[in-house]
Amino acid sequence: MTYGRVILGDNQFLGVNHSDQGKATALFNKFDEADAILEVIGWAYEAGVRDFMFTTHDRYYPVFAEIKRSNLFPGLYFTPSLPYAHKYANAMAERGMVDVVLSNLGPVSKLRLASALARSAVGDFTGLMKLLVEVELLMCKGLQVRGVFLLNIMFDLLLGLRNTKSLEAYHSFVADRLGVIPGFFTMNHPEAVKVLCDEMGLKEPWFCSNLNAGGFRMNPSPADVLDSFSSGKSRNIAMSIFASGALSSEESLTFAMKAKGVDAIVFGSSRRENIEKNVARIIQGE
Amino acid sequence: MGLSHVTIARQIAAPDSVAVCDASRMTCFLYRRMGIKAYGSVTQALEARGDSIRGVIVATPTPSHFTIAKMALERSIPCFIEKPLTLSVTRSRELMQLAEQRGVYAQVGFVLRYVATFSRLRELVHSGELGSVIRYQAEMNGNVITKPDNNWRSDFAAGGGCLNEYGPHLIDLCRFLFGDVTAIERAEKGHIHSTRADDRIAFDWVHDCGVPGEVKLDWCDTSKRKSVLRFSIDFEYAQVSCDNSALHFSFKEKSRLTGEDRGRIAALIVPPRVSFYLRGEEYTLQLEDFLSVCLKRPLRVEGGGGQVDPARLADGLAVDQLIETISEMAGLR
């Protein structure tokens, strides 16, 4: 299984805008209703997008329920990115950690939680990692899942700590047990390739990383990131491709499409004309 | 959060050169399982590593900052201390004097100085490109306290309340941008859910450079999803608003700036590049600055941005002093 050339992202639905917090807040409020989100996914679907990548935010429950109930978007694949950290952080401040963990467990047995916690107490986080994936995946029940991506807030932490055991456990659990593509968001693509491919020996793992003409969040340098994208050691999804300052959206898109080693491009937008225009460009290629 | 300090420091310096001290045996055990050297106390670490210690990062709860920083400074070891510096002006001053006597470098974790938009704002204030600053407003709002609470967060004396929580960040940024504060003219608190601490606080002050500022903090703002910090600055030639993601300019009629000037001034800001990104460039940048002093070599990567003026102990002390005065004027003490 692999990704299509173009993937719909979800920053617009969650009020994430790296260059304007004001706009971001307005969007977050606009997409408070499931219908508003469904409408945008619908535009992308009609334009030919068959992959939707999203963060496991609570606001998708009614959206996914409607997609399943009405069998909207047949052939659309879903890729949850997890964990949505704000969810846990906010809930923990309100209700306390134990309550949050228990209430998010759903049908996963408390016995398994106990065992995972016991193992993590002796420094083995692999059980907890699997449990986290399973719990977060509950919202995708009944949907076609293409892959599961670990968000950079967690992946880059594990990467920095060289906690390769947890990364291995996650990778094999998603690939072997769930049978879908395991992936990683990272803001440190060269370091991620070095550790996962060279040191851990993973074969062509999927990364989702910033790649843009402006060098926005391409660490430690744009040249290093372009090099590691084109190394052929990993499969890559380019994101934040429009964060390029002076360039037009047309030129930004061309830059990402011409870069070596880009298997797919993920972008989000709340405007129909942008979605249609960009999807058409990416699908028809050079 | 100690874990992110450890992660960034390991990535910047050599992984094996970073060790952790934590009073919790469980935490130490977990760090060791991850292959990180861990000590149960600062004394133990000092005994074991002694002269080889090149720097100390203090990321413990505030009440222990003083003791740990003092142990390091007395041994002339450079120190990075998370904000707020200490819970008392006297102790903050003692640390500052100790560092001065010993000639040791010490940095305070006012991380917002490293946010690209605020650095740019400071350049605009200093360069005079937009004329002089007439006045400004600064506010920080968030939806932190949503119901009456009965813990330390709702108790000013225990370090709770909006002034203690939001104040250090915003007050340091105001000083970073406009310099020292000469006088506080007014301070008023407001309660929404907390009775023993402020849920809102507003104060007016004047900086040494003559610029007046109005500051408002509110942690019961239900319209906010996360904490937002915003400056509105009235320059001679433009009205500028700035948060941690963007600057917005509204140029004034009388400004003689050409279209080209305006374009350059309002150009989109690309955050600096960092050696390892974890949770925002600013967190890595501040540790790159600290560790470059400890390791005596430059650590910024290419495109890592211009020199930032890191917060020193004197800045930490000044913030503690302002908080003390504001809280007295507002009737919180």
From TrEMBL, chain A:
Question: Any idea what this protein is called?
Answer: Uncharacterized protein
Annotated organism of origin:
Geothrix limicola
From TrEMBL, chain B:
Arranged from A to Z, the UniProt key words for this protein are:
Oxidoreductase
The keyword Oxidoreductase appears for this protein: yes
Q: Looking at the keywords, is Oxidoreductase present?
A: yes
Q: Which residues form a coiled coil?
A: none
Q: Where is the Gfo/Idh/MocA-like oxidoreductase N-terminal domain?
A: 30-110
- Any idea where the GFO/IDH/MocA-like oxidoreductase domain is? 118-231
User: What name does this protein carry?
Assistant: Gfo/Idh/MocA family oxidoreductase
Recorded hits in Gene3D superfamilies, A to Z, give:
Dihydrodipicolinate Reductase, domain 2, NAD(P)-binding Rossmann-like Domain
Kindly give the Pfam families that the UniProt entry links to this protein.
GFO_IDH_MocA, GFO_IDH_MocA_C3
List the source organism. Geothrix limicola
